[in-house]
Amino acid sequence: MEVPDKKNLKQAEEEWIRQMFSGTIHNIGNVITVARLAVNELEEASKEKEDVLAVILNELLPPLKEHKDNGTLSSFLSEGAGGAEYIDSVIELLNHQKTLLITEQQEIVGALNGKLDHITEIVELQQRLVSGIGKEDFLSIKSMVKDALKMMNEALLRHVVDLEEDYIDELDVEIDGSMVIQVFINIFKNAIEAFDEGSINDRKMKIVVQREKGTKTVACRISDNGPGIAPEHLDKIFNYGYTTKISEQYGRGVGLHFCKQTLEKYGIEMAVESELGKGTCFVIYFPIRQGGLTAIK
């Protein structure tokens, strides 16, 4: 793997940290967008309520006022065709609309509260990740993947990615969890960007954590059915500054380099498997050993 000089390395590290913070802001922005849609639905529900009131005020009540002014209200309600049921119909309409609107508004407000809770969750998680940088603790692979998915949840939903998770085996890892979570986030982000650039419609991503047969490692495989990576690019994918992305907005070839470098500090290997037109799979091999890493039965 190509290694940059110290000056470029420092700049790249700063860029990676900047991307981590900007990624959090982007994730919060995704949630806010969905929350704003919920508010719009609430406003539409209010407009519908106004429309119903307009029908009652402009169509149903005027005949009553006319009969009242003419002194025929009593006979209209008791003797006129349908008059006896007129008030009951108005009351029934109001009660029905009230029930309908309350249900709709409760659902919308519930969804809105859920999104606001998710924003709080993302902020709290990001604060924990930032404060945890450089600190090592025992964390399970599953918990780190789940934290990364929380950060990327709205992006995965917005880009309509069908996610499948299978945690067959587990492992507790003594590691800087903040940085490993960022590794997972980077992989998820790359998959979404590949879907977009490859114009993939039926988007699928699968996460499998399972012990490798005949080895002392637990592998975390993150695969997608994106456009894939050409063979001539595979051996360069982790090189500093190397990227296969068409749009500059998607990165500068820094993320995967530091993902691999971060993991290698803990004796964890990262590899990529890909077939053009069929998809890509990033594999992270966590070694099972006493002292640093402990398997969970």
Q: Helix coverage percent of residues? A: 55-70%
H/E series: HHHEHEEHEEHHEEE
Write the CATH fold name of the largest domain.
Heat Shock Protein 90
Can you count the helices? 7
- The tally of structural domains comes to 2
| Major sheet strand order | 2-4-5-7-6
Task: Just give the CATH class of the largest domain.
Answer: Alpha Beta
- What structural class results from the helix and strand content? alpha+beta
Main sheet, how many strands, which sense, barrel?
Answer: 5 strands, mixed
Give the uncertain stretches in residue-range form: 292-297
Shape call: elongated
Separation of the first and last Cα atoms: 35 Å
Mean pLDDT: 75
- Cα Rg: 29 Å
CATH architecture of the largest domain: 2-Layer Sandwich
Oligomerization status of the protein chains: single chain
Structure description:
This protein is of the alpha+beta class. The chain folds into 2 domains: 1-132; 137-296, 2-Layer Sandwich (Heat Shock Protein 90), CATH 3.30.565. The protein is 58% helix and 18% strand. A 5-stranded mixed β-sheet has the order 2-4-5-7-6. The radius of gyration is 29 Å and the shape is elongated. It starts with 5 loop residues before the first helix and ends with a strand. The relative contact order is 0.12.
